[in-house]
Every structure is written in structure tokens, then in C-alpha cells.
Amino acid sequence: MIRRHGEGGGRSQFITGLKIQGRVLGALIMREVLTRYGRENIGFFWLIVEPMILTCGVMAMWTLLKHEAHGLVLVAFVLSGYMPLTLWRHVSSHAVSCLRQNLPLMYHRQIRLPDALIARGLMEIGGITVALVVVYVLVRLLGFMGPYQDLGLILAGWFFMAWFSFAVGLIFGAASERFEFVDKLIQPLQYLMLPISGMFFMVAWLPSEAQKLALYVPLVHCFELVRAGIFGDSLKAYYDIGYIFKCCLFTTAVGMYLVNQARHHVKFE
Predict the structure, then answer these.
(1) Residue range 20-57, pLDDT digits in tens
(2) Contact, 252 vs 163, CB < 8 A?
(3) Phi, psi of 141 (to 5 degrees)
(4) pLDDT classification of 168: cutoffs 50, 70, 90
(5) Rounded distance, CA 69 to CA 77, Å?
(6) Is pLDDT at 4 greater than 60 in this prediction?
(7) Residue 73's beta-bridge partner residues?
(8) CA within 20 to 30 Å of 228's CA: 14, 35, 36, 167, which one?
């Protein structure tokens, strides 16, 4: 077999770079876990337990108020809404102040500013994903909901929710270094997004004109994908994978550009 000069070396360098990047992210995640949760009590398990407690509380409250939502099993509807919402809120909001908190690590030449944001995002995504699996197994064993219908759609919705949340988090993180008031605006903004996010409704339940407007919101497509995977043919779901992919890609590009510009404004906390 004829091999071009430098082909094997380039591939080896790429693999070596991936390994280094993996070790960097692993170390940053471990540092983030220890800094936030410490070693006492349940430590980093709180990252998983917190969303579980909140989700179970919301499911119990909604179940006491009513037993179905447009013919759908209420527990499944709440689970498919509150867990993606928790992913959106945690991943996007925890990027705030991340850059300045990790600035002292930048003297390591292998660590860049985006690495700190990626590590924090991966930690949040991992914790909430485990919480989703645990809660789903519990409610299935207790008989409160049936089995999911299409795992591929659930994974697609979860993946795009995580990606879009991370991309928005890049913008929040960069903006918080430029303008101090951004920290105070993020939670109100997230609450204002609730009515149009898709957590409380399916697009099919809306009037035709409202449906068109709702589908401009990227989060709506993520919720629709997750619920299509859980409920299957028992509901009509509206989603456009091409649209949400473009939104994630564009938002990520904008976020990375702003993070790169923010390095000139980052100050020690």
C-alpha cells in the first residue's frame, strides 16, 4: 500500500490533539464539580438529585390538579416538558461568569477560554441526562407512564436542546463579561420565554396562525421531537430538523465569535 508522505503523521497528530483535549475537558469538569459541590455530603450527586427532586415535585403537583392533558398521560407530558426545560435553563444560565472564574487557568497553553464553557456545559448536560433516565425508570416501574415509542426522536430532541442551550450560553457568557447588567437579565428572560418555549403546549393544539409563529422558536422544535418520541402516533408533532440544525449552527458561530472578542474584557473575579 502506498502512503503519501505526512499522511500518517497528520492523522497521529490529530488523534494526539483529541486525547489532549479530552484530558483538558476531563480535568476542567472535575475541577468544576469539586468547586461547586465539594466533597462533603452527597457532593456531585447533587447535580443529578436536584433536577430529579424538582421534576418529581412538578409531576406530583400537576397530577393532583388534573389527570390528563388533551388525552395524553400527564406524568409523561410533564416529564417530556420539564426535563428539557431544566436542560435549557441550567446549561444556558450557568455559562454566566464562567470565563472570569476560569481565567487563572489560562496560563496553561492547552486551555482556552471556550474550553471552560464546554466543560461546564458538558457537566450540566451529563447530570441532567442521568436525572432524566433515573426519573423515567422510576415512573415506568411505578406504572405512571408507558414505554417510549421512538428513542431516536427523543435523542434528537435532547441533543438539539443541549446544543442550542450551550450555544445561547456562549452568548450569555460573553455578554456577561462586557455588560454587568446581563447577569440580572438572564433569569427574567428565561421566565418570559416559558409561555412560548413549547413546554406547556403542543403546536397541534394552537390555531393555524399561532402555529406558524410558534415554529419560529427553536425550543419548540426540541420539545416536539422529544414528545413525538415518547407518545408516538397518539399525537401530531410539528418539527423541522433542518431548521433547528441551522439555528444551532448559527447561534454557535455567533457565540464563539463573541467569546473570542470577550477575552479582551475578561477581568479577574
Answers:
(1) 667 777 777 776 777 766 666 655 677 788 788 888 88
(2) yes
(3) -65, -35
(4) very high
(5) 7
(6) no
(7) 68
(8) 167
Q: Is 36 exposed, middle or buried (0-12, 13-18, 19+ CB in 10 A)?
A: middle
In tens, the pLDDT along 202-236 reads 999 999 899 999 999 999 999 999 999 999 888 89
**Position 1 pLDDT exceeds 50:** no
* C-alpha cell read off for 25: 475537558
- Could you tell me if 252 and 97 are in contact, meaning their C-beta atoms sit under 8 angstroms apart? no
Closest by Cα among 162, 134, 183, 187 to 248 = 162
Q: Which three cell numbers stand for residue 102?
A: 476560569
Burial code (b: 16+ CB inside 10 Å, e: under 16) for 231-246 equals: beeebebbbeeeebbe
Three-state DSSP state, 67 = coil
Q: Which amino acid is at 156?
A: A
3-state secondary structure of 269: coil
- The C-alpha cell of 11 is what? 492523522
CB 100 within 8 A of CB 268: yes
Task: With 0.70 as the threshold, say if the pTM is over it.
Answer: yes
- Residue 260 pLDDT more than 60? yes
Helix (H, G, I), strand (E, B) or coil at 152: helix
Q: Which residues pair with 72 in a beta bridge?
A: 69
**Measured at the alpha carbon of residue 252, what is the angle toward residues 217 and 89, in degrees to the nearest 5?**
55
Task: Output the pLDDT for position 99.
Answer: 65
Looking at residue 101, its pLDDT comes to 63
Q: Which of 44, 266, 250 is nearest to 176 (CA)?
A: 266
Picking from 50, 52, 56, the residue whose alpha carbon sits closest to that of residue 75 is 56
Per-residue pLDDT at 28: 73
Cβ(238)–Cβ(211) under 8 Å?
A: yes
